Amino acid sequence: MPLTRRDFLKVSGMVAGGLFFNKKGQNLLKAEAYNDLKIEYATEAATICSYCSVGCGMISHIQDGELINIEGDPDHPINEGTLCSKGSSYFNMVNIYDDEGEARPNPGRVTKVFYRAPYSERWQVKDWDWALDKMAERIKETRDETFETTDDNGVTVNRTTAIAHLGSAMCNNEENYIFHKLVRSLGLVNIDHCARL
Ligand code: SF4
How far is CA 75 from CA 59, 78, 82, 93, in A? Predict the structure, then answer.
């Protein structure tokens, strides 16, 4: 049966009307729908999106020790509450919602250490103690072998050029400040960050 203009407007109106009701049938245009928000009793913590160097402000909501929501911070001077598509999906980096609407840890998140030995074609799962010991061992070995106290002109340099450090946009300013102090104290001069401007 052909759809008349009147039918089309009626169906469109019903669909549009449906967009303003939540799952409980509450009218989202009225305040009643917001009486039982899932974040009502949550603790708020200000944080920064770590995906890129824009550094948009976010508010995370935590309830019973679980992250239940992240959204743009309207009081933040950089983004004034807005987030791009990456920032908007930030919550999914940690959690996803199951079919019942409950937040569950994202099964795709890598939480273990994967190690591939030199010349090996396979990854081995290691624990963090092993990984930290291995990193410390290799850093010390390389630094001891390559540390220069003076350059060719006799100028004091106290450096190693054999180790480089790349910061991460996944870390905030304070974390990167600490990284910077650590690697400078080891004598590194090759220091960079993926989100530098
Ligand atoms: S929300 Fe988007 S623009 Fe803002 S810091 Fe995150 S990735 Fe960058």
Answer: 10, 9, 10, 24
pTM listed for this prediction: 0.58
Distance 37 CA to ligand 1 centre (A): 25
- Tokens describing residue 111: 């939480």
Pocket of ligand 1 (CB under 6 A): 49, 51-52, 54-56, 79, 83-84, 86-87
CA nearest to 56, candidates 34, 88, 26, 33 = 88
pLDDT digits (tens, 9 = 90+) for 128-181: 999 999 999 999 999 999 999 999 999 999 999 999 998 877 777 788 889 999
The Cα-based distances of 153 to 94, 150, 156, 183 in angstroms read 52, 8, 9, 24
Q: Report the pLDDT value the prediction gives residue 94, as an integer from 0 to 100.
A: 83
Domains of the chain (ranges; CATH) run: 37-111 (3.30.200.210), 147-197 (no CATH)
Give backbone dihedrals phi and psi of 150, rounded to 5 degrees, phi first: -135, 160
Q: How far is the CA of 71 from the centre of ligand 1 (A)?
A: 12
Phi, psi of 52 (to 5 degrees): -145, 175
